[in-house]
Amino acid sequence: MPSPPPAAEPSWAAWVDGTVSALAEQRLLRSLRPLTPDPGCSRRVVLSAPSPQRLTVFADNDYLGLSSHPEVRAAAAAAAAEHGCGPRSSALVCGHTEWHESLARRLARLKHADACELFPTGFAANAAVLGALATSPGCAIFSDALNHASIVDGARLAAKGAGAALHIYRHNDLAHLERLLSASAAPRKLIVSDSVFSMDGDAADAAGLAALRDRHGALLPPPQAHATLVYGEGGGGRRVHARPMTLAVVTCRLLSKAFGAHGGFVACSSPLHQLLLSRGRAGIYSTALPLPAVAAADAALALATPQRRAQLWARACGWRSPIVPIEVGSEAAALEAAARLQRSGFFVPAIRPPTVPEGTSRLRVVVTAGHEEEEVAELARALSESGVLRLRDAHARGEGEY
């Protein structure tokens, strides 16, 4: 008797096509726009399609304007010329050089820590820290609802891979966090909150978090992607009322932010550093940070002066951070707002779900030390004259135009 025909397999192509069509209908489909940076000026680009247009960028995280600084560029170029571009292996095999070690020591001093580990990305840094700590028996993770995706995914992986319990508390709602902490019988509790939130520009309540940490015997590693070299004494970031360095840890995915380079790092105690090297899978199994990026970050660290930070805050015009969200509500409204600014000569892309919660699409304006005072004034005029602020106000009143 002939065998029955095999059951029809679901069509992957049909699923992909349907998902892409649905994303396009919801105005959530993303695409890449090739930009040509202006040589020597990180804040200017040429957008080539549909026709060449020169734009001033108010969207990147190059807070101190160091990515195109001549000394940073020269350091990266010299490292590439002398040692090549690729690190050849993971840090634990043969990718960790004396230049990596020198930068790690300088970063540890900046963070008042015993040790520092470098990572190829900030995403890997957060995943490694959370994954390593979650191997502790009875670990429970308490994460802010608006944490960066690298923290969110790191916590999810830690919960799935190591069996840690995962609790999400409402954004900056310490009363909700306290209820969750009090209800948990976990012997080891880990509170995770960005110090400065990347899409809203608001800051965590450092003193309140530290108080909850002490009250519940928790560990509090504050990721400082958008704070190091921008906030704090000597650019050390927003300090969270740290205890003596026993297991206190600072994770920073920002060699690609104010440093104007690439990569991330974790500054911590010596025992925790040893744990990361042994159990931080995202670092163990990643290729090391390339030497040109190490050289660029090292040069940037020397250039991150108090004067440059003062210039950044002068450009911020009294705002709470260099990140200024302009929430307009719908995806369509955000795309229209971005298009209006582009017609006025400014590059400020729309930020849409899942990067931000549904109904809170926005423009994320970022000022840097590299911007001229007149450029900030011109942007303010464009926001008003283009009608972008009217879109924001209509959304605030619940009268969305789109």
UniProtKB/TrEMBL annotation:
SUPFAM superfamilies: PLP-dependent transferases. Residues 56-383 form the Aminotransferase class I/classII large domain. The keyword Transferase applies. InterPro entries: Aminotransferase_I/II_large (IPR004839), AON_synthase_class-II (IPR050087), PyrdxlP-dep_Trfase (IPR015424), PyrdxlP-dep_Trfase_major (IPR015421), PyrdxlP-dep_Trfase_small (IPR015422). Gene3D superfamilies: Aspartate Aminotransferase, domain 1, Type I PLP-dependent aspartate aminotransferase-like (Major domain). The keyword Magnesium does not apply. One of its GO terms (biological process) is biotin biosynthetic process. Keywords: Pyridoxal phosphate, Transferase. One of its GO terms (molecular function) is transferase activity. Its cofactor is pyridoxal 5'-phosphate. Belongs to the class-II pyridoxal-phosphate-dependent aminotransferase family. BioF subfamily. This is Aminotransferase class I/classII large domain-containing protein. It comes from Emiliania huxleyi (strain CCMP1516).
